[in-house]
Structure formats: C-alpha cells, structure tokens
Amino acid sequence: MTAREQRSVLSAAPAAPAAPAVPVAPAPAASAPPGSAAPAGPLRYRRLLVPLLVLLLLGQMAVAMVNSAARQTPTIDEPVYVATATDYLREHRLRYNPEHPPLGKLVVMAGVAVADPHYDAAFTGDQGRIGRHLLYESGNDPWRLMLWARLPVIALTLLFGLVVLAFARELAGTAAGVAALALYAFSPDVIAHGSLATLDMPATGFVLTSVWLVWRARRRPALYVPLAGAALGAAVATRMSALPAVPVLMLLAAWSVWHARRSRGRSAARREAAGAAVAVVLVAVAVVWAAYLAVDPRLRFTPAEAVPDVGGIHGLLVELLPFPDAFRAGMRVQFAFEDYPWQGYLFGRVYTGSLWYYLPVALLVKTPLGTLALWAGGAVVLVAVRRLRPAAPYVLLPPAVLLAAAMTGSRDFGTRYALFMPVFLAVAAGGVLAVRRRWAPWVTGALVMFVAVSSLRTYPYYLPYSNEAFGGPEQTRLRLHDSNVDWGQDLGRLADRLKRRYPGERVWLVYKGSGVPSYYGVHGSDPRGVPPGEVRGLLVVSDSSAAKARGSLAELIRTSRPIDDVGHSITIYRR
Description:
The longest helix is centred in the first third of the chain and has 32 residues, at 40-71. Helix 13 packs antiparallel against helix 14. A hairpin with a 3-residue loop joins strand 5 and strand 6 (570-574). The protein is mainly alpha-helical and 575 residues long. Helix content is 57%, strand content 5%. It has a 4-stranded mixed sheet with strand order 3-4-6-5. The protein has a two-stranded antiparallel sheet with strand order 1-2.
C-alpha cells in the first residue's frame, strides 16, 4: 500500500469517541474575614440611598411649606381664589375671577371641601369683597380655612418635584436627578409659592410635566403624546399665561414623533409628526373644556363684574380661541390688565409701566448664587455634550419662550411670573454631572450644599428671599417690592410682635394686603390724612408701600427711626 493510499484509509476511518467529561467542582468561595459584612449588604444600602435622599429632600420641603402655610396670613390674591373655589363647591357657577381658568381653583377646592366653611351665596360684591367676607365676616376661622386651601397646592408641588427628579434622571443619570431635585426642593421661590393657595406653581408644574411627557414620546409616542396634551391642557386650564407654551409643545411633540417614526420613511414620519402636533392641541383644548364643565355642566357664565370690551387684534384673537365663553371673557380681562398703567419698583426706582429687563434682574436677586452657577453650567452642558444635546430644546426652549412672553407684560410684580425658570433649569443643572471630569461631582455637590444652607437660613421667610450678593432677605425691600417681598403675608406676625414688644402703644398703620388687621388684633390709624406732627408712637408700614412712598408718607418715613422688622416685609418705625 502506497503512502497516499494509507492516508486515504486513515482519513476515512471514524474518529475515536471522546473521553467522558469529568465534572469539576466549583472553587470554594473565599471566606470573608471574621466580622466583615457580606457583599450584598453594602449593595442593599446603596440601593436605599437614593430613595432616602429623595424622602429627605421632599420631607424638608414639605415641612417648610406646611409651616409657612400655617403661619402666614392670606396674601393679596389668595382670598379671591379661595372664595371662588368655595363658590364652585357650593353653587357650581362661573361667577368670580374669570381672568383665571378654573382648574387651579378646583385644586384649592379640594382643601376647602375639608374645611367646610360657612358661605353666604346671596352676598353681593366683587371678587375682592367676597373673599374678605368669606374669611372674616362669615364666622369662619381664616387660619384653618387658609391652611386647608393651601395643602392641595403643597401636595402638587411635592409631586412636581418627582417629575423634576425623573426628567433629570432620564437625561443624565440618578445623581443628576437627585441634584436637580435638591435645587428644586431648596428653591426659596418654589417653596414660597408652592405653599400658597395660588395658581403660579400648579401652572408651572403642569407645563414641566407636559414637556417631560413629550420627551418620553421619542420612544413611545402613542402613549405619551396624548398624556402630554392633557398636562398642557391642565396648565392652560390653570393660568392663561401658559398659552405661549402651546406652540412650543406642538413643535416638540412633532419633533419627538418624527424622531420615533423616521425609520418608516420621511413622508410617513412627517405625517405622523403633524398628527402629533394636532393631537396635543386637541387634547389640551378638551382638558380646558372639561375644567369648565366640572364647575358647571351647563357652562352658565354670570360674571359678578363687568367684562371689558377688547378690540383690534386682541379682540379678534379672543374670538378665535376654541374655548368656553368664560375663558374668552377672562382673556378680555387679562388684555385690559395689560393696558393699565401699573407702577413698578426696581432698585429704588419707582416707574409707571414695565421694564423689559425687570424679570431677569429680579431672578438674579432672588435666586441662590449656587443655583445661578448650576443653571449656567447646566445650560452650557446641554448644548455642548453630544449625548445631552437632543434634550436641549425640551429643557431650554419652553422656559425661554415663557420668559420672553412674561418680559413683554405690563405687570412687574415678582418672580412668580417666571416661576418656570427655577423648575426647568433645575433639570438642566443636573446635566452638569454628565461632564466626565473628576471635579464635576465635587463642584456640583458643593454648590448644592451652598444652596441648601442659603435656603435654610432664610426659613421661614421665603417670600422676601434674596441671595447673599444682594444682602439676603433683610435687604430685598431696597431692591424689589410686591410678591418679591411683601404680599400681605405677615399680618399675624405683626400682631404677635406688637403684643409682645409694644403693648399699649399708639399704632399708625399703612398695610398692603387683603387681610383685615383688626381681626388679628392690630388696631392702627392711617397716618396719611393726619398732619405729620400729630403722628406719634409707632409707624408700621408694609415694605411695598414704603418702597413706593410719596408725599406725606415719604416724609413720615424720612423723619422716623426704624426700630423693628417683621418677617422682612413690614418695618416698624418710632416717632
């Protein structure tokens, strides 16, 4: 047999069976040193750390807000909203406060229902008088009624904190979510207005929720586009100032759906994107109608005060709105407000009308310094870091448009008109932790701690907060007025101060607010109609009134000596 034939035979022969595998016992785990914890222990604690931090942040926020709600007397707007909510509850009619849609007041109504106040439906008067009558002339306890009216808004504010957490976490990770929540939970403006029975915080939170849901629609558009429309409708059904967000949300919804459907071809993706924009508007409009129908299924609108006529482009716009008559009447009232020559105050200057830069300057004064730094850093990171860049339009465009719209308004009354800035930019600030540098978490943590200390130091006087660069809450009255400082919230504290420190002294009072001083035991005469030489004793002046003082009041303040401060919103002078 040749060599070639031998190789052929060998290659054709069947292979020998493999030897059976011998089972190998696993190597014994290394024994832990005596007294050391099992590896699962630290892991379990790490998993609990984030929920504990969230509970801690929201817990301190809840304590701050509930304490403020329990200790502050009614601010200027609150009696109107509470009385309107009571009228919704008892009479189911659209009568008072048409300039604001009903949803926010329906939220307040949940607390009013628990308080169960006495209500005189036959009382005649404007919305300011009905609020005063409900709180002080109907046998109700205003402290109890106001606390219950504020609690639903507090609950909503806490829930919106979870939206901030979730939004930032989806963008940049868990640490970013916690950092964003910390900025939100320690924001003096959010705490101040989240503890009041007003509409600013609910409207802001609903806009944020709508944007977050539109962002999520990039993955599941069929689920999240309608939900985003519902949240947007809730915002518009709370405050008409949310209307500029509608075209922004339409654009973002279309972009999200186009991103989700682009694999199906450009033509199909464009059609679905246009459909998403329309769907957001239709759902939002439906929610606005539902809010009015919840008050009165027959939509009877019987305003307690005359609704102004509005012509020109504003009148045409009102007629084109696809909303109930009561909503359109409220728009006419809002346009009439815009034509009123309101007085403003900024850094010692009293002026008539508005200043386009008022809100940016006010935000600069009333935002913690650490927050300002993280806002700026977060905005830059959203644009500069490639993986976060898709989120930049969602986080930055809505507050930019809303701020631009607010800056064109005629009422320079406070940062509450720009409350969306600390809410949206908290989400942006969390993005700083997406920077892959060793210093990023340390710098972010240090700035968040700085914000926390600044916020805790102002407790419980959150409304008059200003940051350290502008002297703190004690100096806010020198630069800003109205709801930035003094919104009538410290009448109860004034009564306690006069009783404890100045019993029996003659009081001359200039109070700016909707409370009734005599109910709280403050009995003072108005000094403005009295010769200055006869004004002796204590001169008590709300800081907003002092800021814009002219004539006799300015002379009285100039010739008096400040001796005390109440809540950084009321000053007591000695004459």
